[in-house]
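Field log, afternoon session.

UNIT: design team B
ACTIVITY: writing a sequence onto a fixed backbone
BACKBONE:
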């Protein structure tokens, strides 16, 4: 079997496997399926989260399956396994410039200095992680692809094919931004083949750095080489196999071996080091500047106070989320939790959570509410930003009765908008839908005299902050739909001691 055929089989298999896990997650059939497999395999995710949290989440140990072959063979993940890389490879093959002109293809696959950018990005995100800000998910290809599938592609497909298996159409705030970013990155393959992989991919840069010590690698015999440059015709990584191989750029696609008419190129164990450039070619000054950028990103982001004192009232995290600063240390912005949410309440942020929290999940009660008997978001989180909790733990029953239910926040009334309070109109919707037992929303009967002299009896609602769990169903179902008369704030959430509402912490009433 030719190497090209074997690689195509591998690419089809892993891309299909990725889509399978996306669909399984999308249909919420999670039990028994490793929905986060590709994220847990991601070496950069495990490396960066280990730096920010000083721990390795157990699921991320799967990334060792990629560390080992990379240290032995080089960047095989980029061309044989990575679903995002496979997508770019296919689009470049389908629409790429000069696809049928051999000379154009050779020139487009020569190394360019712009390919240093991915190493500069890698340095910046690693330094930011060392300082305490996890930002690898912004451009990590697996995180980026999951996020694009969750918030842009799958909702769009559901809109195009409304007779699908979905119960209803899902919407996501800022999904158009993520969708157009995906379109731009994919379309750039027309200008530069494998643009994202060669120019921007921090995971590729990380694997390229690891592959510096790989034992097996491409080698060119200068005695056989006739300088025809045909080895560049299908070189996926622009690794310059015709001169000194750029080891950290090589995707181990083996195309150069098959394309060489003189059989001057082979895959050898520890070939002559003089025939390769082992380390990435990044000037020291640019590396220092990237380090400063990463450190400043953390400093400027944290001093804004968006994760602490100046937090936004809209930033209500999913049930089981760790404390906000720890959450930002763990969340990789893959948005799997957003797609698996059955009520569509989880939405990606833009700037609500500050610059550090871009594309992290928050609850938007206008779109949905947190289902009382659902913990799916914690089941798919690969890094522990959302802990895996049980229904009993979430609702505070059984052995968790003493600690009480998990609170996402507290509901507050805007009496100027509430129908019974401001408009003398009967309404008990919020009390009826409140899921807690006993109900956190109760009402008191009052009799008032309207302007026309007619007496009317109303039930005016109140919130018991001790019983409120902040699920948001009251806000979602409120008939004042533009801006609900009752709205949930993160005040009183279980995960933060600083955001307590009552002197007793909101756990019990004296």
């Amino acid at each position: 079997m030719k190497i090209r055929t074997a690689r195509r089989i591998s690419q089809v298999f892993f891309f299909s496997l990725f889509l399978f896990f996306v669909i399984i997650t999308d249909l919420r059939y999670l039990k028994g399926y490793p929905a986060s497999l590709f994220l847990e395999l991601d070496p950069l995710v495990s490396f960066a989260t280990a730096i920010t949290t000083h721990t390795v989440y157990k699921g991320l140990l799967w990334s060792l399956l990629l560390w080992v072959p990379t240290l032995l063979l080089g960047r095989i993940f980029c061309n044989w396994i990575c679903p995002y890389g496979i997508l770019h490879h296919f689009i470049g093959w389908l629409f790429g410039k000069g696809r049928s002109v051999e000379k154009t293809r050779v020139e487009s696959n020569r190394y360019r200095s712009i390919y240093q950018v991915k190493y500069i990005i890698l340095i910046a995100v690693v330094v930011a992680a060392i300082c305490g800000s996890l930002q690898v998910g912004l451009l990590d290809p697996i995180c980026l692809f999951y996020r694009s599938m969750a918030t842009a592609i799958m909702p769009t497909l559901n809109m195009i094919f409304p007779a699908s298996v979905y119960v209803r159409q899902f919407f996501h705030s800022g999904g158009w931004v993520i969708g157009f970013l995906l379109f731009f990155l994919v379309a750039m393959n027309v200008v530069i083949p494998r643009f994202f992989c060669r120019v921007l991919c921090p995971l590729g840069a990380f694997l390229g750095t690891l592959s510096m010590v790989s034992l097996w690698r491409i080698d060119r015999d200068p005695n056989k080489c006739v300088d025809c440059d045909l080895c560049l015709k299908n070189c996926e990584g622009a690794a310059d196999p015709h001169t000194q191989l750029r080891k950290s750029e090589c995707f181990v696609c083996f195309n150069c071996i098959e394309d060489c008419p003189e059989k001057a190129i082979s895959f050898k164990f520890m070939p002559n080091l003089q025939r390769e450039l082992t380390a990435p070619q990044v000037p020291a000054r640019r590396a220092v500047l990237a380090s400063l950028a990463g450190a400043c990103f953390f400093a400027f982001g944290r001093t804004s106070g968006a994760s602490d004192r100046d937090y936004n009232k809209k930033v209500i995290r999913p049930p089981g989320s760790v404390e906000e600063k720890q959450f930002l240390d763990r969340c990789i912005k893959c948005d799997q939790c957003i797609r698996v949410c059955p009520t569509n309440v989880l939405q990606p942020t833009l700037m609500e959570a500050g610059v550090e929290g871009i594309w992290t999940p928050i609850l938007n009660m206008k779109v949905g509410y947190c289902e009382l008997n659902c913990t799916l978001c914690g089941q798919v989180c690969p890094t522990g930003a959302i802990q895996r909790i049980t229904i009993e733990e979430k609702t505070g029953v059984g052995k968790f009765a003493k600690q009480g239910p998990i609170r996402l926040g507290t509901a507050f009334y805007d009496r100027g908008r509430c129908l019974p309070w401001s408009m003398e109109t009967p309404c008990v919707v919020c009390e009826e839908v409140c899921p807690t037992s006993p109900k956190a929303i109760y009402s008191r009967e009052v009799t008032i005299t309207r302007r026309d002299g007619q007496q009317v009896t109303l039930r005016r609602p109140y919130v018991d902050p001790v019983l409120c769990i902040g699920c948001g169903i009251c806000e979602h179902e409120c008939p004042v739909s533009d801006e609900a008369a009752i709205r949930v704030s993160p005040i009183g959430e279980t995960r933060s001691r600083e955001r307590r509402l009552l002197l007793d912490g909101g756990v019990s009433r004296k």
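LOG NOTE: The two ends are 76 Å apart (CA to CA).
NEXT ACTIVITY: expression trials, pending approval
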